[in-house]
Write a structure and sequence with these properties.
heterotrimer; A alpha+beta (183); B mainly alpha (559); C mainly alpha (54); A: 183 residues; alpha+beta; 7-stranded mixed sheet; 2 helices; elongated; C: mainly alpha; 57% helix
């Protein structure tokens, strides 16, 4: 039994029941299917996290973001408490688009066009944050000192919300952003 | 050398039980259960806060209690219990004296002091950083120090386990190879060594950073190394609870492994590859290549998952074979219907097996698929998954074997036997609900570690679909059920240990141990019921796996 | 349960795989070395090579 040493001294040579061997083979093959599925999706699928990332410090990332904001702001949205203005920025399709995560907001609000692609750069100026785009449900991790670069193509129009889903202190549950998608 | 008076002979199993080992097993098990109670209580508060209609704790307390809950159950309860399992699987099952009991006690005190220090740090309010304590968020220095001391203690305990294996072999206290349960415990101990060494590599510099000696810790590097501690510690749990399943099947039913070779190979896959899947937590990170992610998240082409799938068949298969040899041969499932469901050890074990496989296992593989992770990372699906593995799987299995440890090691009868019969079902049902409803909420995008999904105080607004709020309410209710089941467990076990009738003679653990020594040759093994159960599992796995690729394909294109 | 008795006293050579599985310290070495190399070291090497943004 399992709580006593094996009955045969050389248990390695005990024959294996066919049913058990069959299951081992099926399970092994299924493992291979799942492994190759991930590789296949990189080739044929449309949703892959890019491997492109850079080290970048907060000041430099802020500079690039601010440059985009200065050039492409088309409006403002006012927050509920405190009445701050967040710029709404509409960068051209195909361009580099920047999103800052910081305690406790996403800045600025991006306005993108449906069906067009953008090189989205995301970084944090302070702690780790989680970029969770709802209700689409795209979830990415955002680090300070690093920027993630991914090319995204919004598929629907409407107002989308960026929820922070990496715990970042007492204001974590108030940390929201917006991405607007227009025709 | 130990003298004969250091041992007693167990009247039920005939094993030579080393009394110093037994004292250590008891001490570790008792402290484990105390922390299960504390951590479980914190878990209830978390569930009742995330139930929006109840919202019992304010935000700062919520994050504090959530941190404490993670530490106390995921680390303290489970590792204390595992140390007890290690000593049992080595000294007791091998009829051997425990190596260096004094070191075992040093390990115990270090773990206890470390656990208390880290809890104090969290309760003081300055270390609400979650169990993961992601840099650059900083906790108080004694938070890290408590963890380090706990970890070193656990490592010493593993050392005592390895030392005992050496002694048992040299003193020839057993013949042939290690029992399968001990081999499973060995798997757990090996993974524990990697886990703790990784923890030391990252927590020691982080502690130095918290006191100002080191100026900067890279957040990505921290996360990579921390998860070698964080996820691998859960793989210790998997190995340990699988060993516990085999032990319960043996003790309660006299079940024999249907193939020592295949079961040991499955544990070998765990030893070699299980720890690679710490990469699951880094699939949505910048800067790590898809090659690294795919190879590691797949546990090396899913070989370690193969290990789990093997155990998922051999454990029920051995139960079926034992039951059929006992005469329960009618039809496909008489062996299962007439299994000792009134024996809480068996009931807990079987439910742990089914839920770990169907709920925890399948969701884990799906969640850990590189691209599918994009729809789940940091959502409440993640805790839904791991409550399926660590609570429905490990904790329920540990509760189940406690019903055997009470008469065998504490040598007391279990009090309130009718309640004991019900307890695993109550807890199991609660935990099933917790897992399913958290996964449901996560599928709708609800975030983990989040105090208010209504965003009442946020500058912008967002509404999750109403179904998400329903999920959180159902999760809250399930949490209450699980807490009741947990409370019942604590009451029964503490009551038994303190007030249960003393056991001095041989007891019937459930099955006649000698009845099913042989199943016949491999050619005549008949386990059709298990084959059907495994087929159902496999079908569910394949369907759920591909459904999630379908969901992924509806996401915005990204590359 | 007493220990299993009646073991075949055998002069047969124990197969390699069984000797591997019967050797706790070899398994310990493999169980630590393999994830250390494939998960930790490989991962650390990738992180330190992340380029700086222009």
């Amino acid at each position: 039994m399992a709580v006593t040493p094996p009955e045969s001294r050389i248990w390695w040579k005990e024959p294996v029941a066919k049913i058990e061997l069959t299951w081992v083979i099926i399970a092994f093959l299924w493992g291979l299917v799942m492994f190759f599925m991930m590789i296949y999706w990189h080739i044929a699928g449309n949703q892959n996290l890019s491997n492109e990332a850079y080290r970048i410090d907060a000041a430099t990332f802020t500079k690039y973001t601010q440059a985009m904001v200065d050039k492409y702001t088309v409006g403002q949205r006012t927050t509920r408490q405190g009445g701050r203005e967040i710029p709404i920025v509409a960068p051209p399709p195909g361009s580099d688009v920047y999103l800052i995560a910081r305690l406790w907001e996403w800045w600025p609000i991006l306005q993108l066009q449906k069906g067009k692609s953008y090189r989205l750069h995301i970084s944090s100026l302070d702690w780790q944050h989680g970029f969770s785009l709802q209700p689409v449900n795209i979830n990415l991790q955002v680090h300070p000192g690093y920027e993630l670069v991914t090319t995204i193509t919004p598929r629907d129009n409407g107002e989308f919300t960026v929820v922070c889903n990496e715990f970042c202190g007492i204001g974590h549950h108030n940390m929201l952003g917006k991405i607007l998608v227009v025709e | 050398m130990a003298t004969a008076s250091d041992f007693r002979i167990c009247p039920t199993t005939g094993l030579n039980v080393h009394l110093p080992a037994e004292r250590l097993i008891k001490a570790n098990a008792v402290v484990a259960i105390v922390f299960l109670a504390i951590g479980g209580f914190f878990g209830l508060l978390v569930a009742l806060t995330r139930w929006p209609a109840v919202h019992i704790l304010p935000a700062d307390w919520f994050y504090l209690v959530l941190t404490a809950h993670g530490l106390d159950v995921l680390l303290v309860w489970i590792i204390f219990f595992e140390i007890a399992v290690l000593y049992f699987a080595s000294a007791v099952l091998l009829n051997s004296r425990l190596a260096a009991p004094k070191v075992g006690w040093a390990a115990f005190w270090m773990m206890l002091i470390g656990a208390l220090v880290v809890n104090v740090a969290v309760l003081q309010g300055g270390s609400s950083v979650m169990f993961t304590s992601y840099v650059p968020m900083q906790a108080a220095p004694h938070f890290y120090l408590g963890l380090i001391v706990f970890a070193v203690g656990a490592l010493l305990g593993c050392g005592v386990f390895f030392g005992t294996l050496v002694i048992a072999k040299e003193e020839k206290t057993y013949e042939g190879s290690l029992p399968l349960v001990t081999f499973g415990a060995l798997t757990a101990a090996i993974i524990a060594v990697f886990t703790i060494a990784s923890g030391a590599i990252i927590l020691i510099p982080t502690f130095l950073w918290s006191v100002g000696i080191i100026s900067h810790i890279d957040s990505l590097m921290y996360k990579l190394i921390w998860w070698a501690l964080g996820h691998s510690s859960q793989q210790i749990n998997v190995s340990a609870h699988v060993a516990v399943w085999y032990a319960i099947a043996a003790l309660v039913l006299g079940a024999k492994p249907i193939s020592e070779k295949i079961s040991r190979l499955a544990f070998l896959f765990y030893i070699l590859f299980l720890q690679l899947a710490s990469a699951h937590h880094l699939l949505a990170e910048p800067g790590l290549s898809s090659e690294w992610k795919i190879f590691n998240t797949s546990y090396a082409m899913y070989l370690a998952v193969l290990g789990s799938m093997i155990h998922g068949m051999t454990v029920p298969g051995s139960v079926e074979a034992a039951q059929r040899a006992r005469g329960f041969n009618k039809g496909m499932f008489e062996w299962l219907r007439k299994a000792p469901w009134g024996n809480p050890a068996f009931a807990g074990m079987f439910m742990s097996l089914v839920m770990f496989g169907f709920i925890g296992g399948i969701s884990g593989v799906v969640l850990g698929t590189e691209q599918i992770n994009l729809i789940f990372h940091n959502t409440l699906y993640v805790p839904g998954h791991f409550h399926g593995t660590v609570v429905a799987g490990t904790t329920l299995a540990f509760m189940a074997i406690t019903y055997l440890l009470v008469p065998l090691i504490f040598r007391r009868q279990v009090v309130f036997p009718k309640l004991a019969m019900v307890q695993p079902y109550l807890f199991g049902l609660g935990v099933l609900g917790i897992s399913i409803f958290m996964m449901g909420a996560g599928t709708l995008g609800v975030s983990r570690r989040h105090w208010d999904i209504g965003f009442a105080d946020a500058g912008l607004s967002f509404d999750y679909p109403p179904a998400a709020f329903l999920m959180m309410a159902l999760n809250g209710l399930s949490g209450v059920l699980a807490a009741l089941g947990g409370l019942l467990f604590i009451v029964i076990v503490v009551g038994s240990v303190l007030f249960g009738k003393r056991v001095t003679a041989k007891i019937d653990l459930g099955g006649n141990a000698g009845v099913v020594a042989k199943y016949g040759s491999a050619g005549t093994l008949k386990i059709p019921g298990t084959a059907v159960l495994v087929a159902i599992f496999f079908t569910a796995f394949v369907l759920y796996y591909f459904v999630n690729w379908k969901y992924l394909s509806e996401l915005w294109p990204m590359r | 349960m007493a220990q299993s008795s009646g073991k075949q006293v055998t002069s047969e050579r124990i197969p390699f795989m069984q000797r591997l599985l019967d050797n706790p310290f070899l398994l310990l070495f493999l169980g630590v070395a393999i994830p250390a190399i494939l998960y930790l070291i490989w991962g650390i090497m990738e992180i330190i090579q992340i380029p700086v943004a222009r």
